[in-house]
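Q: Golgi to ER traffic protein 4 homolog, please. Structure only.
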Amino acid sequence: MQNSTVNSSCLMKCCCLCGSPRYMHAKKYSEAIELLSSGAVAMLKHGQVTCGTELGLLLIQTLTAAKVPFDNAAIDQIRAIFNAYPRAADSQQESEASNSGVESSEATVAARTRVEGCTSFLRAALKWSIETGGFSRGAPELHDMLGQYIWTESPAPVCTPNQHQEMMKASQHFVRGNQPEAFAKVVVECMNKCYPSEADLVIARAVMLYLSLGNLRDANRLWDSVRQRLSDSSQDFPDSPLLHFVKFLLSTLERDALPLFRMLRQKYKPSLDRDPSLEEYLDEVAERFYNVQRRNGMQGMLGDFMKMFAMDS
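A: Structure for Golgi to ER traffic protein 4 homolog:
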């Protein structure tokens, strides 16, 4: 039965790959778009991630060639493909991965394949949304999808550098999305997985990311949502000098108070020194909110990360 399903899926892929170029050559874009969209969804639902991703990328190329505008219909097609990507919970093998080192290794490879496929598809969609939708950073809906998938599906062990890296990758998309409450859920999950002594750093980095983009509104929404989620689960909000600084910073940025901003940075420097990236964020905040030009431009860890993200996107 399984072989029959896979063979049917492969046949469907061949039909799509052979048919869509013919439609595109005849400029029958609507037929090609429908064929590629339905084919990608079917392939992904059968677990054929590589094939489904190829069809999804062809769909984005067709949307671009046809000059299809960014609209709800196009987003719905992209979302349907995104929703069809397999999740870890869908795999029987991965649910039993703890029984064998071999199975665990295979599950990790499968997870990486899923994440890489979904990431390449959504990054292509983001580029299309920039070209046709007027979004300088890409459509927020697409960033929310990609941030969610990276965080929930990446095979990163708890409390490791890899987990921190995946959190940062997901965060870079969440802060360009429009769902800070969903991002707050991720922040709390990360807090529960990391060392207790680093929980305040998780919150601070997330808030600072919003602020480094000049988004004070969503920084406040994230802050409030994290507090609410912790309260709802009977968890204490971390009480540390670093988070005292973040609270004062959010209030300070509501007004034209550059001297106070500088005073806070100096007073809480020992706390900020726990993570050198925090000073990088604050340099960017100073430029965006108070027009304080950075002497070295976008350098340092934050600048390097932002550049890497720009190239990857």
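A: Brief note, in case it's useful. The first helix runs from residue 2 to 25.
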